[in-house]
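Morning F.,

Quick status update on the modeling queue. The single chain you submitted on Monday has been processed. Sequence for confirmation:
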Amino acid sequence: MNYRIEKDTAGEIRVPAERLWGAQTQRSLENFTIGTERMPQEVVMALVLLKKAAAVVNHAFGTLDRVRKEAIVTACDELLAGKFPDEFPLLVWQTGSGTQSNMNVNEVLARRAMQLIDEPVHPNDHVNLSQSSNDIFPSAMHIAALSAGETALLPSLKRLEVSLQNKVEEFRDILKIGRTHLQDATPLTLGQEFSGYAAMLHTNARQLQDALDYVRELAVGGTAVGTGLNAPPGFAEAMVEKVSELTGQRFLTASNTFQGLSSHDALAGVSGALKALAANMMKIANDVRWLGSGPRCGIGELLLPANEPGSSIMPGKVNPTQAEAVTMVACQVFGNDVAVGFAASQGNFELNTFKPVIIYNVLQSIRLLGDSMNSFRERCVNGIRANRPLIAEYLQKSLMLVTALAPHLGYETAARIAKSAHENGTTLREAAVSLGCVSEEEFDRVVRPEKMIAPA
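Structure tokens below.
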């Protein structure tokens, strides 16, 4: 391999000759050989977008000449179009401010811009002009999180909500027994049960939209500690306007840049909303796999799509694999939220230095939830069918239909009927009549499951 010699304030270092990155990127590669988790591409592209906006804004303020501005913008456009993807090799496990990833982008853009105009372009003096890693990296974190949440996660969530709502209509007339504490309870319809699932996701969508609104605030313009040193007056406002124009999304200047650098409560809030979604997805997936358990010795009220063989030793076995994948994703999201919470609490004085791990976990949670909901919808929910005969059989056997008698006979008498039926293996009707509590006609008039699914 051929090398060239690059220099920074720490001295000289060898860099592979064909690479666009420079000294600081190379130092990070050599100094942080920890794990395999690379800085998310969403963050890198957000940094590139910010550099494009900064070049335009700095030129407008008269601090960057036209030739270098156009070269930097062209280089940014190339990267945003997918060119040179291998020039961003840095890991999450680096400096907690994200400085090395910011410099990675600065160095790549500077060298590419120099190739375009054959004039010096400096990663700090030109590409990073009016910026600090301390304000530009958290701004990139917010851009990446908002984009991922709005363009990937929320559409997946809403599509799953629609699929569940379709099942509400399909199952509207199917009476079934309810279950509380894993024991038989009063009846409802299968459609009502699924309406709860759809409503959970509707609430989650609102929670996520509310949480994402807080990451619209960008810390750009705060520079090193929030004061805006070395940035011209009005730079923050101009940057936010340009970023909003470039992304088509609404961003705002940070209401307080000192908060924007030292606190990540906005992303902690997003992570909390992701955790709430994961909790509901865990519940929905678990209900689906329990209701689909069997096929002969489980609950078996739902018939789930058979996507693949389920066992390497038991022929013919089919497992609820899509539901299992969702529950594993939920566990990962729970863990990610714990990491984000701890990391967000570590804002010592003017800077939080856990930025890379915060955005890595938030973006992973967004990606996993979006992907798993798509898969669950396509390969499970859309193909769920109701096992009508078994559902009807369970309903007729349930002792909790006795609840309809309680207003007429009293709680204790109704309980005595249920206990007698259970102990003697009879139906509720037989037990109620044999105990002399009601006649057969009275029982049939009062105990009507279809009348028990709404307020009397």
